[in-house]
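Two folds, back to back.
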Amino acid sequence: MKLQKIQGAASIAFPRPVFIESAASIAGKKEGEGPLGSEFDMICKDPMFGTATWEAAESTLQKEAALLAIGKAGLKPEEIRMAFAGDLLAQSIASSFGIAEMGIPFYGLFGACSTMGESLSLGAMAVAAGYGEHILCATSSHFASAEKEFRYPLGYGNQRPLSATWTVTGSGACVIGQNPPSFPSKGEAMPLRQGNVCAAITEITTGKIVDYGFRDSLNMGACMAPAACDTIYQHLFDFGRAPSDYDAIVTGDLGVIGQQILLDLLSGKNIDISQVHQDCGLMIFDSNTQDTHSGGSGCGCAATVLCAHLLPKIITGDWKRILFVPTGAMLSKVSFNEGDPVAGIAHAVVIEQAVVS
């Protein structure tokens, strides 16, 4: 018996849904002041999260989001079979230092800002293959740690061009598994089950590295949009679908510039997603009141928006099926300083409303 169905050139359709048992989101002060502020599980106004360094702050942020997701699923860390997690920092230290304390078998990932899509894809394959009843998928980013890693120390006070996005301080974590989530406890905020309705991963499309030769690390939207176009096009081709088959096609963090490039690139392939397209980087901040230029970015951008905003819309019936497409810019401070281009990648995850007994 085959546990999954290979679909087209880059996709998998799971014969049984992989259920999202719980989701948790923790955000920073700036994110809490944005349009989705009331939807996050927790907002921490201290950017240091009680630690001495930006990196330790991000580790704490991710660990707390993971523990919250595990607790909301009614589980203990030792009941999690394995964790897939990553971040933007060198050697993924935010994830390895944070989740390491929990004693969970760990796979460290680097998909840049596409990491939530990568972790959900790998986790869903592991669940579908029977390699774990409960899998943790998590990621994080922190504005200050990312600036330190890739751009300038905050004390330098450099001016940011209008093409730049603002790295989200936040973490999102999901527990996925073979069975539907249990009924929520009374008063639980944003449960992932209402009656017999829950959310499930049904299909994935694995992205390819796409390099258009961009070298501007302060225009991440332009670097990532070609990869988003490639993955969305491949997904629709593999499944023989149209954009109208989805209530929403949600990219991770293309921002204002990247969104327009994506729409133009897909238009060149005779695909119009403008009626259903949304971008997490445009949802998490208010462009009129918050000075974030092109929008939000970072691993935590798509992850927090998914856990706080997108999944509840599926549970409540606003949406029945979405295509979640986090986008990532594949660069390091070494590659950038040596003049290499910034390639992109995007992983697509189909999340649908599931009705269970």
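---
second:
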Amino acid sequence: MLFIALVKFKTTLSKEVVARNLKDIEDDMKGQVRYLGTYWTLGRYDTVVLFEAPDEKAAMNLALKRKDRMEIEVLVAMPAEGRSPAGPT
């Protein structure tokens, strides 16, 4: 399954916070999570992350591991591929 994570850091970024995030990403990739892209953003969120996980439980576990440092909204993503939510176009 494909997921989009919208991230807002709770604290100011420091070398320690970045190092911990990188360690979490390494640990995630040893399991069943595959990161497809991480993007710094301007506006309401600090970062947007695109990743694959086997199910919603795995995606939620990813977010819960980081709850002390960041607020994360995880969205399930589905390729549009020429289709609208109401059906084929």
